[in-house]
Amino acid sequence: MSTSAAASLTERDSRGLAFVAEMYGAQLDQLAALLGLNSRQARSVAARWAARGVAESAVLSPGGPWVWLTRAGLQACGVRYPAAPPALPRLAHIRATAAVRLALEAAPVFAQGAAHWRSERRLRSRLGGRLGARDHLPDAEVHWPDTGPAPWAGECWAIEVELTPKTVSRTTAIMRELLARTGDYGCPAADASVPGAAPRHARALYLCSPAAAGTVRRSRESLGALAGRIEIRDLPAAAYLPSPRRAAVRATGDQRAAGLVRNAQAGRRSARAGQ
User: Fold this and answer.
1) Nearest to 93 by CA among 159, 36, 175
2) Which CATH architecture has domain 88-241?
3) DSSP characters for 128-163?
4) Of 61, 73, 84, 91, which is the most exposed, with the fewest CB atoms less than 10 Å away?
5) For 171-224, what is each residue's pLDDT tens digit?
């Protein structure tokens, strides 16, 4: 983290801010799960970040408030992503992807194998806007170092989070693209898929909702010998946004939490105006 913004941040703050930066944003319950906090403590953390100018928060969807980083927060994390709230049409997918990351990182073998999650946001930044209209980025990569004790040491996995079904033809094309790739994202186009070179992704792990699972299975079946490199799992239960009915029951608490953060932001802006 940069020195100026990180001077008074704890190690827990740094971990939370880095997660939020890489995932575009996170809901408070996911931030609480990441940091081992209860709901009240997570709200306090979000309010403190807002007061220091490194994060903002608002209720953007059913469920608790979302938290995302300001330009100062992103700079504190040492990344140059655009400072903006998570895109509303992508909130369900962002939450599901964050839930997959939390579930994987909570598995003992992940820490034992020194595995590393490489976010879609980081992959996209490496491309510098050079992603073609039909090109596909995985939702993340998981890297297993060569020296780790895990059975997958040395492998790189493509992570795909499927909430809604695509067509079988499109899903199959994405699978083939992921499995044929040989170069890192951001490499010269000629190196992206080199015949005879070692594949970049030893496997692609699909985390699916019930609605999407059938299409993903049919797509895998069409791959022939490549099908063995596609693994399909259910999305974690925490991956889904709450239904509007359940969310309404929690609305009062969520609005109070969002108000706490907004009040902290307003106080910070007023203090600046008075300087």
Assistant:
1) 159
2) 3-Layer(aba) Sandwich (3.40)
3) TT---TT----SEEEE--TTSSSTTTT-EEEEEEES
4) 84
5) 999 999 999 999 999 888 888 899 999 999 999 999 999 999 999 999 999 999
